[in-house]
Write a structure and sequence with these properties.
heterotrimer, A alpha+beta, B alpha/beta, C mainly alpha, B: alpha/beta, Rossmann fold, 6-stranded mixed sheet, 12 helices, 42% helix, C: mainly alpha, two-stranded antiparallel sheet, elongated
Chain lengths: 356, 278, 477
């Protein structure tokens, strides 16, 4: 009769559970260090490898295109700043661009050649299309769009960008409100003025939020500002700009407000009370009338809401809350629909919503 | 609405099938042994599969869940000596083709040109369901609305005036409770009537486009009609182009949309003789 | 005919493109709004509403109770405990009856028949002892519980109660990055993972549906309950005083099932934050009106749709499994059976993670159906230990009537309490059966996710049993 002793391939003496446990723990720790998202060794390595010469050249072209659109004069220093590399390194990049006839330099100033402009516009197109795609067709958080698009823009061929544009229904603007250049490199002029330059009492709609520098953008996003949002400016002082939005008054430093571009809106009833409170504020038993869907609600989520008939003027009644406290069921056009709190927040009610 | 179309049709093809045979084949529907094809559309959880089962005698599971039918189901039935193939489309809230399901349903109704499209609507939530019915009517006039779940409507004390709805929509509306096979005979008669051309729907396309759009739309529709005279639904195509619908854009570019214009008006070479001999 | 015309398709498309820049981004919203305006106008004309709607109130009252803070959860537990109890209690007798019929009555007849034909012994062995026996085994273990569980579940579904369960539990699933409806697909998974995977169709958000599909395997399915119960009673129950033995082993099984739910939530959390981070995620949950289920129709369709569907797929996979187990036990290479070679080869890994080669080989053979793990373990142990007087020959599946005899046989095979505990863990955490994998492939349409679904739980199982074994050996004398 044979029995199963210690493993036959390992000499019995070499195996000790304590040793095996130790080895196991070490292997586990090593794989955590290697594979951890963002900060793991593998993630760092792939990031490092991406910063090659072509990427830098393309980023420089993009910077030059943006300068041209905004009628700023690019300098070696501004390029170095945009690329976050040393001046010496920047000079190499510029030389590379010149040798490929993508830019021409005259008296120390840089100018894009037709070819260079087309190239740069294609990168901007890829970037903004990809942001649109991330906003509409994926679940990635808003703060991650820009970074992801910064990487993706260098990998999309013009053909892929065209296919992407088609699959998105040829969008005209990216989620930050920037126009997307056409495949021919044409771009709609950016309109609007800075929020910091508005007068008190004026109702405006946000048309664009500058996504660079990232820290300022992150603050604006954290403050809940988004393209399409309607605001009413209440006070403009040297040290702050105040405005009403979605039922509360907010303040921004003028430096930060300068990164928000707005266009005046005609003062209709809706804008006199810019964006009322969200649906999530209704307690079970209360009812309200939808004023609008927040511009933050986009992609499949927005279309689903529209399909369910959540439209301006629709009456919605909060019926019951889950015993867990979160989804709440609302009666919408004779159907009972459960919405999570962060979804209900995106449905803005008219201020005069009645209680049931 | 007689079961046998005995009255001589005015034009040669009043009673002949309208479906687009080659497109149907491409969509994977075999039409060898069938005279007409019927598409079944509707919102999720309105008893569409129940209607399908009662018409075909099949027993697909139908749960009280929105969105049970994922793949397309097919079956057949015979009525008034004609054989009908019936295709159960995935349940969708709209046909604006924003999800794969909607695209499947939309493509079938548009390119397959079924002889009849039955839109099953929930009588207790008419508003949300008519949203879909109106979109189907924009594509084709060969529609029968099946006002299902009438028992539920009665339970809730709702009175649904099917005659008024039929007048407003300009197409047959049949109240039914498919679970208890109520109203199915009338539904079959209506399907046969539309299929054979005895009933010709005149949908009231009273839809109001956003005012800012009216002028833009008018030009586009005009040009589409000049491009493809006889296109049954130029306004709808124009709206889809403005919405950036890639499938429709491609169909316009390749001229595929023109097939619909030609198929709509004339008999298909194989159809009528075979149909009446059966 | 169109070539002479000044208007071309390209021109129309260009016009449309130019107009799109002018009409702005709210076009889609406006379009839907105008559709609804018209729909609501027509609906208002057609529908007359009574002043007050008494029956709406009935639905509302039921809803208030089943989702109330006080009654919501107890009611839910009671209903599901009831469903499981009826399934377990009701399936025992028909299971035994089926086994007697298929194995003790039909099999001897088939044997006689093949003997009268004078078939060679290996054909007889391969077909009857291998394929037929494995299939009969799977059918008799699987069919009765499926035939009870699915119709009961379907009745609750048709009534409209299940969406309310998803509503009640959504909060916790949301924290794990999942959809409340995953609670239902998981519940379905306790019956059969393949059916659970099919049921994920009710989740319409792509990310949450994939999560539900990939984690369904952590719901301990019907094919694995018998393994858990047997091992818990003969190893874990035996450590307690006889009076408490039943209770302790039951607690161990429930513990493993709860561990599965925990693993499912933890994996959902991990997946939603790493590989599935970018997938589209929208939440939508409609609570349909209650409808009285149509009893017989429901029973009929759920039998056809779910029970027979699952059974058919299981049978398709069980037939080759039966052939394999018979072949590895009977084919000889260099004087030892193929099974012997494989077990020797797998044994080092098996012992390292607190199992043994026999168990690992049994799991490889039982990829088609978890039901045959225990019989395969017994057959292979008999083969390897050379025990006489048990079983019915090499490669012939069997089960022992008494727990005591099973324990003795396994102990002869070198099993300890650690082997028992780790087998229970491994039974929970290992690759899904081939039926489930095939279903995942069909439903997701992706080889990539199917491979993830297979390897992820297997890796988790290997890691968990490895650490348990090492810690056990360090701590235990």
């Amino acid at each position: 009769m044979m029995t199963f002793g210690p493993p036959s391939l390992l000499p019995a003496a070499a195996y000790s559970p304590a040793l095996a446990l130790g080895v196991g723990v070490v292997v586990a720790l090593l794989s955590v260090v290697a594979f951890w998202p963002h900060t793991g060794l593998i993630a760092r390595w792939t990031r490092f490898r991406r910063a090659n010469a072509r990427v830098l050249a393309e980023d420089a072209l993009k910077h030059l295109c943006k300068c041209e659109l905004e009628e700023r004069v690019p300098t070696l220093a501004s390029i170095a700043g945009a690329l976050q590399i040393s001046l010496n390194h920047t000079a190499d990049v510029v030389e590379y661009l010149q040798s490929h006839r993508l830019i021409a330099s005259r008296e120390g100033e840089f100018e894009l050649t037709a070819e260079g402009r087309n190239y740069g516009m294609n990168i901007i197109r890829a970037h903004r299309l990809w942001e649109r795609h991330l906003a509409d067709q994926t679940g990635l958080a808003e703060a991650e769009w820009h970074g992801a698009a910064e990487r993706k823009e260098h990998r999309l061929t013009p053909e892929q960008a065209d296919a992407l544009s088609a699959s998105l229904g040829h969008p005209t603007h990216d989620p930050h409100g920037d126009p997307i250049p056409t495949a021919e490199g044409e771009i709609a002029p950016a309109g609007g003025r800075s929020l910091a330059a508005m007068k008190p009492g004026q109702a405006v709609r946000i048309t664009h939020i500058e996504d660079e520098p990232e820290a300022v953008y992150a603050q604006l996003v954290a403050d809940g500002l988004h393209v399409g949002q309607v605001l009413r400016v209440s006070q403009v002082e040297p040290d702050r700009v105040s405005f009403w939005s979605e039922g509360e008054e907010r303040r921004l430093a003028p430096v930060i407000a300068a990164n928000v571009t707005v266009a005046p809106v005609e003062s209709t009833l809706a804008e006199e009370h810019p964006g009322g409170r969200g649906l999530h504020t209704l307690a079970p038993g209360e009812a309200g009338v939808v004023q609008s869907l927040s511009p933050l609600c986009r992609g499949p989520e927005r279309r689903r809401f529209l399909d369910l008939g959540i439209l301006p003027g629709t009456r919605v009644q909060a019926e019951m809350r889950s015993p867990g406290g979160d989804p709440t069921a609302y009666r919408i056009r004779d159907s009972l629909i459960a919405l999570r709190q962060e979804q209900a927040r995106l449905i803005l009610l008219s201020p005069e919503s009645e209680a049931a | 609405m007689s079961t046998t179309p005995s009255v001589a049709p005015e034009s040669a093809c009043t009673g002949c099938p309208a479906h687009h045979l080659s497109n149907l084949r491409r969509l994977g529907v075999e039409m060898e042994d069938w005279d007409y094809v019927v598409a079944l559309a509707g919102n999720p959880n309105v008893g569409k599969s129940t209607v399908f089962n009662s018409l075909t005698g099949l027993r697909q599971h139908t749960g009280n869940w929105p969105g049970k039918t994922v793949t397309r189901a097919e079956g057949g039935f015979e009525f008034g000596k004609q054989r009908y193939k019936i295709v159960d489309l995935p349940g969708t809230y709209s046909l604006l083709a924003t999800s794969p399901d909607e695209e499947v349903a939309r493509d079938f109704i548009l390119f397959g040109q079924p002889d009849v499209t039955v839109v099953v609507v929930d009588a207790t939530r008419l508003e949300r369901n008519l949203n879909l019915a109106l979109q189907v009517l924009e594509i084709t006039p060969r529609v029968v609305v099946c006002l299902n779940l009438m028992d539920q409507a009665r339970r809730l004390g709702l009175q649904v005036d099917d005659r008024r709805l039929a007048r407003d929509l300009g197409i047959p509306v049949v109240p039914a409770t498919a679970r208890y096979r109520e109203g199915l005979d009338t539904l079959l008669q209506a399907i046969a009537g539309v299929a054979t051309g005895d009933i010709v729907g005149k949908p009231h396309r009273s839809l109001q486009e956003p005012p800012a759009l009216r002028k833009a739309l008018t030009t586009l529709v005009e040009h589409l009609t000049q491009l493809h005279p006889g296109l049954p639904n130029p306004r709808w195509v124009a709206l889809r182009l403005l919405d950036g619908d890639e499938r429709i854009t491609a169909a316009v570019r390749s001229g595929e949309i023109a097939d619909l214009a030609t198929a709509q008006g004339r008999p298909l070479p194989t159809a009528p003789a075979a149909a009446s001999a059966a | 005919m169109k070539t002479s015309h000044p208007i071309t398709a390209d021109r129309v498309l260009r016009e449309a493109q130019t107009l799109r820049w002018k009409i702005g981004a709210t076009f889609h919203d406006d379009l839907v709004e105008s559709l609804y305006k018209e729909a609501s106008r027509l609906a208002d004309r057609a529908v007359t509403r009574p002043g007050d709607t008494p029956r709406f109130d009935l639905d509302r009252t039921v809803d208030r109770i089943v989702t109330s803070r006080v009654w919501g959860f107890p009611l839910m537990l009671l209903l599901f405990a009831g469903v499981f109890w009826i399934t377990i209690a009701g399936a025992n007798v028909p299971s035994r009856w089926l086994a007697t019929l298929l194995l003790d009555t039909v099999l001897p007849l088939l044997k006689q028949f093949s003997a009268s034909l004078g078939l060679p012994r290996w054909i007889d062995g391969l077909c009857l002892d291998g394929m037929y026996r494995a299939t009969a085994w799977v059918v008799s273990v699987m069919l009765p519980p499926m035939a009870i569980f699915f119709p009961l579940f379907t009745l609750l579904e048709d009534f409209g109660y299940l969406p309310r369960v998803a509503f009640n539990l959504d909060r916790w699933f949301k924290r794990a990055g999942a959809h409340g409806k995953q609670s239902l697909t998981m519940m379905m998974g306790f019956g059969c993972n393949a059916a659970g995977v099919v049921a994920t169709r009710i989740i319409d958000s792509p990310r949450e549906r994939l999560i539900a599909m990939l984690t369904n395997n952590f719901a301990l399915c019907n094919g694995r309950w018998p393994t858990q119960i047997l091992i818990a009673s003969i190893f874990i129950g035996a450590t307690a005083p006889p009076l408490l033995a039943g209770l302790v082993s039951a607690a161990a099984v429930v513990g493993v099932a709860l561990l599965g739910i925990l693993a499912s939530l933890a994996t959902s959390w991990g997946l939603s934050r790493t590989v599935l981070r970018g997938e589209v995620s929208t939440f939508s949950l409609e609570l349909p009106p209650y409808r009285p289920p149509r009893f017989w129709q429901t029973i009929y369709t759920s039998l056809i749709d779910r029970t027979l569907f699952v059974l058919w797929r299981a049978v398709v996979f069980a037939v080759p499994a039966g052939a394999v187990i018979w072949l590895v036990a009977n084919l000889q290479v260099g004087g030892t059976s193929v099974a012997g070679h494989l077990i020797d080869w797998l044994n080092p890994l098996g012992v390292l993670i607190g199992l043994n080669g026999v168990i690992l080989l049994a799991y490889v053979i039982a990829i088609p159906a978890n039901e045959i793990v225990i019989p395969a373990v017994l057959v292979l142990t008999v083969l390897m230990t050379g025990t006489t007087g048990v079983g019915e020959g090499a490669g012939v599946l069997f089960e022992l009537d008494s727990h005591q005899a099973t324990l003795q046989l396994l102990k002869a095979g070198g099993w300890t309490l650690l082997t028992g505990v780790n087998l229970m863990l491994f039974s929970l955490l290992h690759n899904p059966c081939s039926t489930t994998l095939y279903t995942i492939y069909k439903e997701s349409g992706s080889w990539r996710w199917t491979v993830v679904a297979a390897l992820l739980p297997l890796a988790m199982g290997l890691v968990v049993t490895f650490f348990v074994a090492q810690v056990w050996r360090v701590v235990a004398p």
